[in-house]
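Posting for a labmate who doesn't have an account.
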Amino acid sequence: MSKEIIEKAVENKLNAPKNNSKRNGCTCLLGNDIGAYNTCGHLCKYCYANANSGLVKDNIKKHNANSPFLIGELESEDKITDANQKSWLNINSQISFFS
């Protein structure tokens, strides 16, 4: 979603970073994917994230509700990085219905 759409949804302006999308023409606020490819069980025909329904079914079997990961467990090649979280809400600015 674009910054403007999110601002409208939260009824507040955002102090968000510049869009650094790696996809040409992408206007999303953040151009980063979350999740993992071949993991969505909906198997929509148009979805770019699922390329192999057999792999999706195999990945779903690896899901562990007690694990912090979407699929499976921590493996030796996994890298965990702490992310700095900060609010983008501009608490001094509110969107008006009249603007």
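Reply:
Got it, the structure tokens are right above this. The longest helix spans residues 53-61.
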